């Protein structure tokens, strides 16, 4: 699929009507299915052609050495890379004596579609073999949101003309050959060859199982399959298995109009500790249960799960159907990434591709969890319990770095630091506060006191300890945090990064507050009142640099004194800058990869006046190139807050279309979970003006001219609140719960069940549109240029990348 | 040799009286011979036992890939490593049927000695074989300072008891097996196995030749040998050669008192472009010439060369014979490293070992060339001509980095950047000014206008262009240089490093001045008056940060605001810090690896008031841990200037004894050329108070209580000046030349031949001794505790390392 072509525009689904071989890898990411535990890229059933075969199990990785030309103390020696595990989605087809392969013969029809309310990837194809025989194929694939270990494929082949001999081979294949990847782009993931060592294989009747372990990380994983086969009389079924392959074959002859249908139940499991029989039995039990549910049962459960989700969490947009589609696509994939991750990390790409080696970063806590907090709060608790489970590693890392408390890794799968470039890895200490604030936010939004007591408190305490030891008081008593890297990766190792210092401030305060609420548990962690007093003192004395002459906050000490990047002299093809300019040059100049100070203004809006926000926003707009996918959404939020609604709309669209339009050019490696989540944030926190800093959740709705209506539901303090915004008024409706206090603009209102409250929507006075570096302006959003039904869409001019 | 044992103390030589197998590698460095083209580690004649076999040819290296866990634009992909070339110094001995190997039988006597006036490594051994036969061996080895391609060995074996059958095998051996090195210490050099590919071999009579090339760097090198053999009647000589080995064997039976003597002439040559016959013929011609000179002739030439050197360049110390020895050891090795390097780099370890991969750094121009400028100026011109020859590569690198002019590599053999860690590599832009100032200094000291016109001018112009493009003017017109790393490697990527900015200032001014002197040549380089005006403007507007509250210069912007390192909490075994603490922590705290601001005060003393110097010195003393060998000498100079003479004396001793006492624990990998040169600087610029910034060279002699007299000679402005300092007076004598103006304290005096001038030596008022981080104080120098003749010496308590 080329950049000129989009997917068909529909508010509830995403569909492709033709197959672009060059864009296969991108479609495989866009149509990927996952439940947070299992991830299946949308490889064609028959395995080939493919862009990048991918079957992932959350937490299954292989170790690989990290080499350094010049080593240093504390550098991680071993990295973790997600691996392509046993492929269970394979269903090969032989038509007479020709393998069904789209590259040969004639593909007369192709359609793939993913309905966000159904959670099933459906495919239809009509194909004429090189020998002239025509068949139709219908397949449907799901990764169950209700049965964690289960994926399933419903595969049907129909003869169109003359009797045809059909063989359907359903397989499990380990150690699939992968295409050789990367051409020096540091963002591409390392490909690991044949990482699985065979332990056991078994096939009998319609069932087969393979058990393997990874060579160095020593994880055991099992895949099993069972089948229901329906067809004309005389279908013969055989089974076989060897080390890296198991196969169930169904053979028959179909006359025109006759069909062979094979329903495949696939089970996955893995463990770092359990025995071979235990892991094997676990997956075989899972497929037994799945077969008991049956295809229709799985389908119904899937639909029910999603219906429940959408009824409480949908975001509706009137006036821009493409954005409507994009935001549902975004929510759907965020849910897929998180639904059943259960004490495992949520990776930057979810389980949709091997990008970033399958690592989790700060963006999970900063972009993904804030969305889930209000729509799937249980997943947030699970994700933070995973972080909590890595505390022993994080404490060890802190000790190695000479710090107190816990230092969480910049990038990891299991919890160990895997970053091989410390200025943009270890130095980004803000990840500690990102995690702590995610925990505090979750507790505030849900009132989950038990979580706070058992998990949140310790996360807050250990990160507060880290901040207290990382910073120091200067001669006049200010608390300074030096030599750190903020979100913007075009600066590094700077002093008093405003984002970091404000986040640390919140972290220190939140920790002290949590200790007050849970004094017994805090005492067990060794916290005393002297320690919390030291945290409060440091928070109070936190130094926040400000450039009085310019009237703006420097991103970090000295930033506004630096030379401006030569934007005029930088041609378009030199973006993303990191691929064309050395770090030393990026670091020492005023050029911003992604929102940093602007993100601080969103997350810590209380620390800035409205005037400062407007001035800062304008200042950083001129410097921000959005070479990261983690930027447009934040810029959208702050653009809306400072009254630049059209600009906010443009940024919102960029965030939302990141993967559907492949704006970063790397959707092939997996979807950008944080940008997808960011699109939701842009709508709710941007146009909805939602802020949740204190006791009461607040809204300052601002609707751009391009939208007619924006409505969203969210779970707040045990209630389900619906917010419905038009240009005239905003209506707050309580769908579940008793009554809730919300703030509209500066007024606090009480919303009770059956008593919606409406208030006028504010239209801000027109302000001058901020300017961006030449060539880096977001595409102007023209929603009315978009029609429904698959016609080309605009909006993808600008390439951003991380 | 253990840390408790020193070499015998003698003012003109260095001697060991016993062989310490555990300390072999260290002795091999200390007794290494070189002429700057060929380097021979002091491996025993018979090759084994060895610490680290080493035979080096300046400029012969192999390429090796530089791997990165996370790559980046502009990272060098290929490194250069010095390789162990064909070993020509091997002379093996068979005694009856036992190989002469010190590890077996009984070594009854061992003595090795290197006389700095003779330039020959002499060895005597008496050995009883396991079978009970006793022999005496005398060998002498030299690397000719007058015949660049030549080394020679004079080897004599004498029977002590009963007739003994002797076989002497003189060899050339390529691809020697090397011990496996390094245990994660990033300072240890990579060992490259079997880097030489055989091209030709030949042996006939007493001559043999091997020709090889390197596999990836594609350099051709040849080694040849010829022999004169004297012994009792009936010496039989055979020759043979194969790919990696050539051998001339002499066999005879010696009766008690009879001797077999073999004089071996070894020739080396290499080329990146010349043909096999050309390179082979070149080395065979060289040994023909050497044999014509004969052993005695080579010895005489060597002695004459060194006599001439010492007569014009000796540094005499009365009152501390160990320091006298150390400084002559230092001067001797500096001369060995530079004498015949001839348009090749002078590596950080000279040609004494594989440390730092054989790379050249900024220390050559900053420490080694300033010494050579006044004693062997021709070598300085050669070294800078090498830099000049790399200008095309440096311009290419500048373009890659987006800068004008030339960016010289932080570490290299041939000229390409080989640093794999840019924050302490590429970011150390000061190397450009270090080179430019070395050129300006050389021209000022020698008046070599032709050099300036042909080489110096272009070096100045291209580095000035770099500075102008690296820095920028801020809103109030100050010229700032941001995101760079100064000499102190415990800080990095800082703004407005004072050392860097002051060096850049000098560079810009010196370039503009040179252009004024050579307008036609400058025009050919494209320089016009607008460009020089821009340089002068930038120099004039150069921003030098100053902390008004503390009354000291911060090393770079914000440095004095940083948290102080917890010196009290850092135990001794945690030094050097870089092996025990992460860079992020070192970078963000006030802790200094090596003189940085203090070096700026030495090289740009004109930019600081006396009061600033005293305050700055005291401030940085408290922070400087001397984890680099490039620090003590500078601290000695500035301690002397601020009147802390005893402290200066202690530092001076540390610099001088760096290798003789193995203070860094890594003398095994090669000698620290810059520290050795630094010891000379500490004496001449420290106690002699020599400064050479302007038209007239100046002296402010200050003698520490521990020394009775210091005298040195130096070549200045075509004259040979001798300075003789006692506590009472300083006498300036012109040894060669007409008359010269020098400054003594604040008075300018004219010294004419035959008319020495004496002035009182100033004794500064006593000042409080500066304090250092606990445990990092330099050892107190107690010169009178040292006796002559090999007894243990003190002074090696403190370990410094780079």
From TrEMBL, chains A, B:
SUPFAM superfamilies: Galactose mutarotase-like, Six-hairpin glycosidases
Any one of the GO BP annotations: carbohydrate metabolic process
Region (Disordered): 757-802
Residues annotated as domain Glycoside hydrolase family 65 N-terminal: 15-271
Location of the Glycoside hydrolase family 65 C-terminal domain: 690-751
GO molecular function, one term: carbohydrate binding
Active site residues of this protein: 489
Family membership noted in the UniProt record: Belongs to the glycosyl hydrolase 65 family.
Name used for this protein in its record: Family 65 glycosyl hydrolase
InterPro entries: 6-hairpin_glycosidase_sf, 6hp_glycosidase-like_sf, Gal_mutarotase_sf_dom, GH65_N, Glyco_hydro_65_C, Glyco_hydro_65_M, Glyco_hydro_65_N, Malt_Pase/Glycosyl_Hdrlase
Pfam family, one: Glyco_hydro_65N
Binding-site residues, substrate: 362-363, 593-594
Domain Glycoside hydrolase family 65 central catalytic: 328-679
Assigned keywords, A-Z: Glycosidase, Hydrolase
């Amino acid at each position: 699929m080329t950049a000129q072509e989009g997917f068909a525009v529909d508010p509830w689904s995403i569909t492709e009507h033709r197959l672009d071989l060059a864009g296969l890898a991108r479609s495989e990411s866009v149509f990927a299915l996952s439940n947070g535990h299992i991830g299946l890229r949308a490889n064609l059933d028959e395995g080939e052609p493919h862009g990048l075969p991918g079957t992932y199990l959350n937490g299954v990785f292989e170790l690989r050495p990290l080499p350094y030309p010049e080593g240093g103390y504390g550098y991680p020696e071993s990295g973790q890379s997600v691996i392509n595990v046993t492929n269970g989605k394979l269903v090969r087809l032989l038509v007479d004596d020709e393998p069904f392969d789209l590259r040969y013969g004639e593909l007369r029809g192709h359609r793939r579609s993913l309905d966000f309310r159904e959670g099933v990837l459906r495919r239809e194809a009509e194909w004429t073999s090189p020998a002239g025989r025509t068949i139709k194929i219908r397949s449907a694939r799901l990764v169950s949101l209700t049965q964690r270990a289960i994926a399933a494929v419903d595969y049907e082949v129909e003869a169109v003309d003359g009797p045809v001999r059909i063989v359907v081979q359903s397989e499990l294949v380990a150690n699939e050959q992968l295409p050789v990847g990367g051409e020096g782009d540091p963002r591409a993931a390392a490909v690991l060859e044949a990482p699985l060592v065979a332990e056991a294989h078994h096939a009998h009747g319609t069932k087969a199982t393979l058990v393997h372990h990874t060579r160095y990380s020593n994880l055991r994983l099992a895949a099993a399959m069972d089948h229901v086969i329906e067809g004309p009389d005389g279908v013969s079924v055989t089974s076989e298995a060897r080390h890296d392959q198991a196969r169930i074959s169904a053979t028959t002859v179909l006359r025109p109009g006759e069909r062979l249908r094979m329903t495949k139940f696939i089970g996955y499991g893995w463990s770092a500790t359990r025995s071979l029989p235990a892991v094997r039995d676990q997956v075989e039990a899972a497929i037994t249960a799945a077969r008991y549910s049956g295809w229709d049962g799985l389908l119904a459960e899937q639909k029910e799960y999603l219906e429940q989700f959408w009824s409480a969490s949908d975001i509706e947009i009137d006036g821009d159907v493409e954005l409507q589609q994009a935001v549902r696509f975004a929510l759907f994939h965020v849910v897929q990434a998180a639904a059943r991750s259960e004490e495992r990390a949520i990776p930057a790409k979810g389980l949709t591709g091997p990008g970033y080696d399958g690592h989790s970063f700060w963006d999970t806590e900063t972009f993904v969890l804030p969305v889930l907090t209000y729509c799937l709060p249980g997943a947030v608790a699970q994700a933070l319990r995973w972080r909590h489970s890595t505390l022993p590693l994080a404490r060890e890392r802190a000790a190695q770095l000479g710090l107190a408390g816990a230092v969480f890794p910049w990038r990891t799968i299991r919890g160990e630091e895997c970053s091989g470039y410390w200025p943009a890895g270890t130095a980004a200490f803000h990840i500690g506060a990102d995690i702590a604030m995610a925990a505090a936010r979750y507790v505030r939004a849900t009132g989950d006191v038990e979580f706070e007591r058992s998990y949140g408190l310790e996360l807050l305490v250990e990160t507060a300890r880290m901040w207290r030891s990382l910073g120091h008081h200067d001669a006049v008593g200010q608390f300074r945090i030096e030599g750190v890297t903020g979100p913007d990766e075009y600066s590094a190792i700077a002093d008093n990064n405003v984002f970091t210092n404000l986040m640390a401030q919140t972290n220190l305060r939140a920790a002290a507050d949590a200790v007050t609420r849970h004094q017994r548990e805090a005492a067990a962690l060794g916290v005393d009142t002297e320690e919390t007093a030291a945290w409060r003192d440091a928070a109070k004395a936190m130094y926040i640099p400000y450039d009085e002459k310019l009237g703006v906050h420097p991103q970090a000490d000295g930033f506004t004194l630096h030379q401006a990047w030569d934007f005029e002299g930088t041609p378009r093809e030199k973006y993303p800058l990191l691929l064309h300019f050395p770090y030393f040059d990026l670091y020492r100049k005023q050029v911003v990869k992604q929102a940093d100070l602007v993100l601080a203004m969103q997350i810590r809006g209380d620390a800035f006046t409205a005037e400062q926000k407007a001035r800062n926003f304008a200042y950083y707009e001129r410097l921000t190139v959005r070479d990261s996918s983690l930027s447009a959404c934040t810029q959208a939020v702050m653009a809306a807050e400072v009254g630049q609604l059209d600009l906010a709309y443009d940024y919102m669209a960029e965030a939302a279309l990141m993967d559907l339009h492949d704006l970063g050019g790397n959707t092939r490696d997996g979807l950008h979970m944080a940008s997808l989540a960011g699109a939701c944030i842009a709508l709710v926190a941007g146009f909805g003006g939602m802020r949740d800093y204190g006791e009461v959740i607040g809204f300052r709705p601002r609707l751009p001219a391009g939208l007619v209506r924006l409505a969203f539901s969210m779970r707040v303090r045990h209630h389900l609140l619906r917010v419905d915004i038009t240009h005239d008024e905003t209506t707050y409706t309580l769908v579940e719960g008793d009554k809730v206090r919300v703030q509209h603009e500066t007024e606090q209102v009480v919303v009770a069940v059956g008593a919606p409250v409406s208030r006028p929507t504010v239209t801000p006075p027109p302000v001058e549109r901020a300017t961006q570096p030449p060539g880096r302006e977001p595409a102007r959003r023209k929603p009315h240029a978009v029609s429904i039904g698959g016609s080309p869409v605009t909006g993808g001019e600008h390439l951003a990348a991380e």
